[in-house]
Amino acid sequence: MIRVLLVDDQPLLRSGFRALLDIEDDIEVVAEAADGKEGLALIKKHLPDLALIDIQMPIMDGIEATRHIAADPDLTDVHVVILTNYGFDEYVFNALRAGAAGFLVKDIEPEDLLHAVRVAARGDALLSPSITRKLIDRYITQPPHTAADTRLKELTNREREAVALVAQGLSNDQIADRMVISPLTAKTHINRAMTKLHARDRAQLVVLAYESGLLTPPNH
């Protein structure tokens, strides 16, 4: 059972999402909150598999709530997906850097919402190749971060290769094909790299890969 917690200041949206999710046999909405502070308290109480968090809310916004979740060792198994009205923008990028696994636009189709919840709950990033390219082109233009570059030196060659392929938007199966290994071995390389890089999920691996200089953004 996938346990979901909704955090959004719009009651109608929460009700709509809850109605869609609760009718599924493998998904349960465990609680709702109207702002980030309340949401954070409920997340600590219920320890959901997935928190769907609005990016702009009173008292505490989604970026700040995500930072608190990422910093709490008791919440390492809680995956955060950001909800936004506007699609990929600087706020969403900041949320990804804070530790979110991905984002959803609020007018998402019902079947896409259900798919996204299942994908995020199992630890995969909600970043399609097209979104990864936007992230690269628009936001990762700063010089490499020394700290990230130092951590990359702890990776084996195969782990570094796997991270580079994650950053290109490839799935585990595609990475396995490219590296001529099994999907399980590909997943192992990625998980070990995440541990060494202190990355919560694949979304942060993408950010780290480019900020560290492991891959160079095109035309930059």
Automatic annotation (TrEMBL):
| Modified residues annotated as 4-aspartylphosphate in this record | D54
Show where the HTH luxR-type domain sits.
148-213
Query: Which InterPro entries does this UniProt record tie to the protein?
Result: CheY-like_superfamily, NreC/VraR/RcsB-like_REC, Sig_transdc_resp-reg_C-effctor, Sig_transdc_resp-reg_receiver, Tscrpt_reg_LuxR_C, WalR-like
This protein's record includes keyword Transcription regulation: yes
Q: Which Gene3D superfamilies match?
A: 3.40.50.2300
Where the record annotates domain Response regulatory, the positions are 3-121
What keywords sit in the KW lines? DNA-binding, Phosphoprotein, Transcription, Transcription regulation
Q: What is this protein called?
A: Response regulator transcription factor
Q: Give the species.
A: Actinomadura alba
